[in-house]
Amino acid sequence: MDKKKALLIILDGLGDRAIRELGFKTPLQFAETPHLDKIARMSMVGLMDPIAPGIRAGSDTSHLNLLGYDPYKVYTGRGPFEAAGLDMDIAPGDVAFRCNFATVDENLVVLDRRAGRIKEGTHELVSAINGIKIEDVEIFVKEGVEHRAALVLRGSGLSPYVSDVDPHDTVLKIHEAKPLKPEAEKTARILNEFVKRAYEILKEHPVNKEREKKGLKPANILLPRGAGMAPHLENFVKKYNMKAACVVGTPLIRGICKLAGIHPIDFPGATGSYDTDMKGKIREAIKALARQDYDFVLVNIKATDIAGHDMLPRKKVEVIERIDEAMGYLLEILPEDIVVVITADHSTPCSVGDHSGDAVPIMIYAEDSRAEGSEFNEVACAKGSLRIRGSDLMQMILNATNRADKFGA
Amino acid sequence: MDKKKALLIILDGLGDRAIRELGFKTPLQFAETPHLDKIARMSMVGLMDPIAPGIRAGSDTSHLNLLGYDPYKVYTGRGPFEAAGLDMDIAPGDVAFRCNFATVDENLVVLDRRAGRIKEGTHELVSAINGIKIEDVEIFVKEGVEHRAALVLRGSGLSPYVSDVDPHDTVLKIHEAKPLKPEAEKTARILNEFVKRAYEILKEHPVNKEREKKGLKPANILLPRGAGMAPHLENFVKKYNMKAACVVGTPLIRGICKLAGIHPIDFPGATGSYDTDMKGKIREAIKALARQDYDFVLVNIKATDIAGHDMLPRKKVEVIERIDEAMGYLLEILPEDIVVVITADHSTPCSVGDHSGDAVPIMIYAEDSRAEGSEFNEVACAKGSLRIRGSDLMQMILNATNRADKFGA
What we know:
Two copies of one chain form a homodimer.
Chain A: E1 5-11, H1 27-30, H2 34-41, E2 44-49, H3 59-66, H4 71-74, H5 79-85, E3 95-104, E4 110-112, H6 122-129, E5 133-134, E6 137-143, E7 148-154, H7 185-202, H8 206-213, E8 221-229, H9 236-240, E9 244-247, H10 251-259, E10 263-264, H11 278-290, E11 296-301, H12 303-309, H13 313-333, E12 338-343, E13 360-365, E14 386-389, H14 393-400, E15 406-407
Parallel strand pairs in A: 1-11, 1-12, 2-14, 9-10, 9-11
Antiparallel strand pairs in A: 2-13, 3-4, 3-7, 3-8, 5-6, 6-7, 12-13
Helix pairs in contact in A: 2-13, 5-10, 11-13, 12-13
């Protein structure tokens, strides 16, 4: 029984609903996808509920579930995954937040939630507020792309059940973090104190003085949101006995992979945006599998999700057709011993502009896959054999790669 | 509401994957099966995960699950089912093993794991070592076909968590049974002592002296493996209120049936091998249902599984076509009040040479079944209505035979 390797391609938010201007087809039905359809004809196909029927999954909760980590047990908020995605050191029990650098006036009213989409200087700003200790809690900050940052609290008695400081709109005063459960009182207190102290430091920082001189909005406050407690995730490599890597552009998914012990392969073209280098991602993934001895590689392509959020069906069709080209490239370079799974983490219907709980198409291709598909889309795949949940996926992959343990004789 | 009777035909290891030399069809897709297809057109069809998606089931764990006994609760190893299959008296709490008669040299190095596939004399050999008592543990041995035997330990404080004595290869010294959990220390000690004592008796036994004289390998040791604790299985007849029988050739499945209170119908043609008399099994099953007043009969045909393990797709096609002939015979003699379920206990793909976690096709035929199938194979059945797990099967049978209890008003 030859063990195979696995390439899991997650087309983020791919699933959609019927769209009037596409003749009541989904973008995936409407798009010209000769390569995806060719793979479907050689694959087991079907539908997957990322979590359970009708459940609207986030990208984080879905990726956790797909990788075999029950989000109902390990997920309290996206903060720790964002922080890990920025290569912050995260330990189980830490409480972490996403943050924006923002601009406030002297009354702490938000003038710009993104501080003029600040591009330079956040590293210096972060250095001035990183490592502050309040009571017994150490506080770490790291900058992300543009106005983005993450915040980690480490200490005793912390809780993820605190409300956001970010008021999520301008012309509003920043919010006080509130404890959402009694045990979060300390965390809220420390968070509020940190935001205040950071404001006092940031508003006087030379980077901001320089920005003001140039007529740019100062990044004079940090607005935390999305509190979550860092979970212990069983190491993926031990759990499945597969050396694992990922090629993903978005920090959130990168952070989930990092916390699971899945090695991120970074390359400049992976942007997590419309302009992402899709062929490049496929090339890096196959290189990792074929030459660098990885047994499992996760690729995430985010652009489909963005088009869904932007409610742009034609754009989603265009993104899907670019993905199809990359799949043509995959077919050219695919070694025989690799099982390819193509699916989505959730649906992001253009008619909704956000994630929905609709099932997503899935196909599992191996040389010996039952060849049962016709086309790769939400409707055609429903005629296939697979009707699984996200939590079944890893077991299906272990089976298709001939790595599953036998239960019984 | 007329109660019907049920014939459950398990085509062991029937499910498969696409095979290059069969034009990327499965053996079941490739084979000419006019009778199975005819039944499909009159049946509800679909796919079944014997345990759960991607889980690689053994024949034992799957049959337990199909019959309504949760293998995660009742299964610790195949030993007790093998022993029961040889008609040994088994009680809950007994720890049992499969064994081989083997040939060892004076250093207990294995020269032949099957003692030259000994055919005669094992009954005499077994008689010399049956009924030994070590500490408070009674030890029973019974011979099977050729070199096969089973061993039962009965006493206090026994555990199934001991490693195999059988080294599973020649030129290796026999292994010491080791406790895999602390509570198995006594069981390992007694098992090792028994193997030693049995060796002392067997090597001097007249049957072996005679074999040596003839230049045959002596069956001078018994090599236990596959320890398991006999579970309490709720009596099938009480559980479902159906008088039940089985027509099976393999001791393992026969043993599961016996422990569940399903009466084995033995007839000489049921061999559990390629040469099994398939029409004979169908004839015996229908006889039991129509004339002997059984309400439920399980038929297992093992030959499909053997061809999968042997990695012989053409042979599997040939076996399937012979099964189809037997199904033609079934259609000729089938009384109207019998529901026929045809499925498999797991897939045994020829490309893998072992069980896989791929779903299996299933069809449920009754005179009043929703007629929805086209052909009976893994791909065509995926278009049908059934997408069930093995643990759902008995409830489906109770429903189709109009025997299910109503829940509510």
